[in-house]
Amino acid sequence: MTTTTTSAPTECGVPSCDNPAHPCAWGVCLEHRSEEVAAQRNLDFGRDYDDMIHEFRRAEADEARRLQQQAAERLKQRKREPWSDSSDRHGRAILRQIIQQFGEDVRSGRSRNEALVAASWAAGRLVAGHELGEADTRRDLLDAARAVDLPEHEARGVIRRRFVAAQKQPRVLEDRRAA
What we know:
This protein is mostly helical.
């Protein structure tokens, strides 16, 4: 049986013993030692969390860069530059047909929202194929939606969502492909 003798009190005032294996010989009582360990764990967790967030943000940036490079490569393969907000006559003629069809659909009894979904999808595919400028096309669709009294916030949401979905299936006009 080992006996321990108490020596000088620890920094927190609790007497310690002479046994080097006993925690009180470390100069801090068990209660304060556990607080130090917990603080160190929290500090380590904070560092790990910060590292994880930094790594996540770096991965996000790398992915965005990769997607931009892929888009640039696709454009190079097509050997033409994307259209700005000005569009060519053929693409504009098709947009006029899409908007005209939108009006006819609404007049024939189709719901305004459904008709706008179809028109936005068709126009969004042309924008994704760089046949039309995005800002001009959005503005023209929004004007058509206003003309049938569709609330602007609804129309903007429908157009935005359909344009995003249309990015997956761009439409390139036939006479452009041959060029």
